[in-house]
Amino acid sequence: MSGTKKKSREEFDFLLRGIAHEIRNPLNALTINTQVLLEYADLLPDWFEKKKEMIEILQSNVRVLSRLNDVVSEFLRFSRLPRPEFAMSDLDGIVSEVISFVEGEFRKRGIRLRVSLSGDLPPVLADEKLVKQALLNLLLNAADALDKEEKEVSVETGVKGESVFAAVSDNGVGISRDDRKKIFTVFYTTKREGSGLGLPLVKKIMDLHGGKVEVRSRRGKGSRFSLVFPPARQFEKHLRERERERHLPEVVR
């Protein structure tokens, strides 16, 4: 990307973040005011014939406003990812930490969680916080995709050629061929309550790591998402070259 295009993109992203903030503030005020009205409605005498209808409308409004606030929050998180702080990292260790975070919730939802860690992975050059975010998104997506009585999510790490991977699989609804072409598009979602930002965020994080997201899926059978990391030394060389290019004058580029 040329310097001019990059600057235009940064300015556009800055504008979008500003708009999102401007939307978020009145949204918060509307949510609070609606919750107050809901409390007042609940105090109305039972003989007031519109009481039940009024409460249902206000409860619906609170849910909608909460959903809008979630979308704005996810967009802000997507648009302002921190600059990665790369370090040699143990992918098995990162996965283990994320698993410990979700296993209680999975247990409550009746989801069987299978974990198969390599135990002998070469280190990856990664920002651990961002990789944890990507893995968490995949795990939550997998949980939401489950539609069978026997709900199962599997997590695996390993080596593929020279690359290192972490994969999340589920036995859920699966993704159609047409949808697989669109799932990394911002705001595209197949979920009723989805924001369409979770998978684009995962892809953005892996792009920052010089890696990729591989997807295999069959309708009615489930899906498998793999985070594939390049060899650490290769990516380290790429980062040095990219940093050198950032400091070249525009005319040289």
What about the largest sheet? 5 strands, mixed
Along the chain, the helix and strand elements come as HHEHEEHEEHHEEH
Strand order of the largest sheet: 2-4-5-7-6
Strand content: 15-25%
Q: Architecture of the largest domain in CATH? A: 2-Layer Sandwich
Q: What's the helical proportion of residues? A: 40-55%
Q: Determine and state the CATH class of the largest domain.
A: Alpha Beta
List keywords for this structure.
alpha+beta, Heat Shock Protein 90, 2 domains, five-stranded mixed sheet, 7 helices, 18% strand, globular
What features would you describe in this structure?
- By secondary structure, this protein is α+β, with helices and mostly antiparallel strands.
- The protein folds into two domains: 2-79; 87-238, Heat Shock Protein 90.
- Helix content is 53%, strand content 18%.
- It contains seven helices and seven strands; from the N terminus they run H-H-E-H-E-E-H-E-E-H-H-E-E-H.
- It has helices at residues 3-42, 51-79, 91-108, 128-144, 177-180, 198-208, 232-246; strands at residues 87-89, 111-116, 124-126, 151-160, 163-170, 212-218, 222-229.
- It has a five-stranded mixed β-sheet, with helices on one face. A two-stranded antiparallel ribbon has the order 1-3.
- The longest helix is centred in the N-terminal third of the chain and has 40 residues, at 3-42.
- It is globular, with a radius of gyration of 22 Å.
